[in-house]
Amino acid sequence: MSLVTKIRIFDVIISLMGLIILFPVFFLIFFLLLFDQKSPLFFQKRVGLNLKNFTLIKFRTMKISTLSKGTHLVDQKNITVCGHFLRKFKLDEFPQLLNVIMGDMSLVGPRPCLLNQKKLISERKKRGVFEVRPGITGLAQISGIDMRTYKLLSKLDHKMIKEMNLYKYFYYIFKTIFKFIL
User: Fold this and answer.
1) Which sequence spans correspond to the domains of the chain?
2) What's the pTM?
3) Is residue 73 over pLDDT 80?
4) In degrees, to the nearest 5, what angle opens at C-alpha 119 toward C-alphas 66 and 65?
5) Cβ pair 60, 95 in contact under 8 A
6) CA–CA distance from 56 to each of 5, 143, 159, 168, 175 (Å)?
7) 74-83, 121-130, 146-155: least confident range
């Protein structure tokens, strides 16, 4: 069985377990956001495996009127009160478990970029980053690198992909969990 197949199996099992275990938290967040913003989920087109576009699902953390662009480019006053809390603990990312189950994403991989992030897309193309599913977490996320530094991000994504094995897959997952719990 190939590494890609093993990772896909773990992605589905862990995501299903996460959705089941965290259902009460999802439910609570969903209804808090429903009352706060009238639209608890946020859907955004992203670039995925083999440059195929897919729809990323997140809990809404910004005002509905906010333009679709990279988080680092958005004025902080557009982030809602609930949104600050959700982002601090990465709770806004939980619905992406559905993207993992649907096969658009993996738990571990390069963060999916927006369609308009042309420089990042170009750098990632050069390094073969789009040959794997994008992920919820990875080397760049645990290293604190975001999409502003697109060349460094692309290099780290490439390094992660090149060195990926089951040990590193679980390492990135646990490192992410502990980073935001502690």
Assistant:
1) 3-181
2) 0.90
3) no
4) 5
5) no
6) 22, 23, 24, 24, 23
7) 74-83
